[in-house]
Amino acid sequence: NNVFYGRIFILKGGIFMDKAQFLISKIFTIPYFDRLIEKNNVPDSFQKCITRYVKDNQELTYGKVISRIYSYMDNEYRNEYYYKNTLFNNLLLQKHSLLETAALTELPIANSKADFVMINGKGIVYEIKTDLDNLQRLESQIIDYYKVFKYVNVVVSKKQLEKVKEFLQETKVGIYELTDSKKFICRKKPYSNKDGLSYQALFQMLRKKEFESILMKYYGKLPEVNDFDYYREALRLIEKKISISRFQELVMTALKERTILLEEEVFKNQVPEELSFYVYFSKKNRTNYKLVNEFLKKTVGV
């Protein structure tokens, strides 16, 4: 079990984390920021991080506090949120377009969850392994991702790079390094791999109205069976008439169409870099830039 020893928090797997760092990981999540923006009180966990990481006696706004804590993360504690947010800023915002590219996070695929996915003309998975992670599940995660996606990348720091390069040298998996200067460098190019695509895994990604739309397009009608057999028959019909590569393309289109694409310049101008990932994936505040900025300008505790 996870155990506290004074200020040291010991995680499963023998990884040591400062108790205050553990609080940072708790704070930099979508649900936590949603609650923080919604309420006017300062949770104990947030106040403890301010006390620890913000050395400033003057009145502070939430925006300044979040920026200071994020700066600490950049220099000392690059957790999963930091990786995801940097991926979002460096790859999606700088190299793609919010009007043409959809991003997904924590996407369930078989027995795994994809950390970060971008869908434009093709779907690409980015599996993050921070310095706090081990590689025990990486092989099974990659197998799961290839059931739905043709392109998979693993994102690591310099510390994990050589180990991951050795582990993936005979595969089509790409490798990106997050450098000390916050750049993502491709250390191994990903190649298309459709060998692992699975009708069942792809079908499970779809909502009912999505696979029904595909069936109507190819058959002009829906299965006329009881509710118990409905999904099984729908999958059987898809397997019968649609190639696996074409079905994968249709699933990518469906996933992309779920995401409301955003005005890029408005997003860049309204959302601070530290919260790009949060705002984009927040169901409550995804386009509520005014509320987010009003919160960031508030003095902490007032």
Short description:
The chain is 49% helix and 16% strand. By secondary structure, it is of the alpha+beta class.
> Percent of residues in beta strands?
15-25%
> What is the C-alpha radius of gyration, as a whole number of Å?
22 Å
Task: Tell me the helix content.
Answer: 40-55%
The number of strands is 9
Give the low-pLDDT segments.
1-10
Q: Specify the structural class.
A: alpha+beta
Separation, N- and C-terminal Cα atoms: 38 Å
Order of helices and strands: EEEHHHHHEEEHEHEEHHHHHHH
Oligomer: single chain
Give the helix tally: 14
Overall pLDDT metric: 90
How is the main sheet built?
Answer: 6 strands, mixed
What descriptive keywords fit this protein?
302 residues; alpha+beta; 6-stranded mixed β-sheet; 3-stranded antiparallel β-sheet; 14 helices; 9 strands; globular; disordered N terminus
What's the arrangement of secondary structure elements?
Layout: E1 3-5, E2 8-10, E3 16-18, H1 19-27, H2 30-38, H3 44-53, H4 62-76, H5 80-95, E4 102-109, E5 112-119, E6 123-128, H6 138-145, E7 151-156, H7 158-168, E8 174-178, E9 184-188, H8 199-205, H9 208-219, H10 227-241, H11 244-258, H12 264-270, H13 276-281, H14 289-297
Helix pairs in contact: 1-3, 8-11, 9-10
